[in-house]
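User: Before I run my own analysis I want an independent prediction to cross-check against. Here's the chain; please return only the structure tokens and, at the end, one sentence I can use as a sanity check.
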Amino acid sequence: MPAPIPSHKINPMPHDHISPARRRPALLAAVAGLLALVASAFSAPVPAAAAAISTPFLPKPTGPHQVGTTSLHLTDTSRPDPWVPTAKTRELMVSLWYPTAAREGQRAPYVTPKESALLLKGSGIKELENIPPEELSRTRTNAFVDAEPAGRRLSLPLVVMSPGFTWPRSSLTGLAEDLASRGYVVASIDHTYENFATTFPDGRVTTCAACEHVNADDFGQKVIRNRAVDISFVLDQLTGSHPKWKGASLINPARVAMAGQSIGGAAAPETMLKDSRVRAGINMDGSMFLPIPKSGLARPFMLMGAPAGDSTWKRDWEHLTGWKRWLVVKGAVHPSFTDYDMLLRQLGVDLGGDLKGTRSLDITRKYVGAFLDLHLRGKPQPVLDKPSRRYPEVQFCSLPAKSCQ
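Assistant: Structure tokens:
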């Protein structure tokens, strides 16, 4: 964890650590999972994007199934909330995406208008000031609310997702919908009080209490350890003897993986070390605040990030002792591994990356899906063996090599 930064230099949108080489103004203004200096400390403006479209949208999923979605309100009575100790239980909101036979229904909202307003305001991005506060709530999704799950008993692998710090579970919707269309159950978690807005069924909206502690020396480690506990609790609720979802019998508890972005990705190794149910993990552009121990992590793991690298990845690479890949996506910035690079580009805001249109999500869907198909379904994936002409932006890296292939 970097040394504490004076409070007047903390971005209103707290961030993980970024190496100096990656401190581009556009990225600093956009990154919601990383500690950094305020973007106003840099003089270069964020470049203008193409004209905004009328309605932001997530591209259609690529799999053969229609997609259903629902939300779960889960309460862990065994522990108080780590950020608000007066809350005697830990409450979580979880979104599930899954295959369905339904051909029509109500499309799921991306976020509520209030969540959209809090997210845009909390970002501190000057270029978003002219966007209506509720704009992200207008995003067109592809999943049907509360559609009946489809599949055979114990047939569907489960992927748990953890978003970046201050970002909600919905930030990974484009990836989640695609995996569900390919026959996965996806559970994305709002780690309460670690993002700008979580809405509960009774109308309560919690905000980022954890943001008050970002300068603490052990902040990153605390977030990661807390998320590992959250994720194990969610697995209990989905695969235990008294599951909280009506479609839980479709889940194969022997085929579970985790994917996360930013500090959510950094939480994947800790979760795997603490919970043997998680067979494989993916870190999308997250600094490893909590080192992998020298005893190593022997299960499959993939690092996938933006150029310029991360010193913690180099440190921990040798401690990944099982199947592993390190992919660098040329032209990506930190939000490119969420929906936001694509959606904000649709709204006329360029975050500084070079991946146009839906390309950032197309790449993430392709490589995350291939990793999961290989390690949860045993299906060979040549795209993970070497660079692809269809995806020239994706470079394969390894140590001690000095450059990517």
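Sanity check: The two ends are 30 Å apart (CA to CA).
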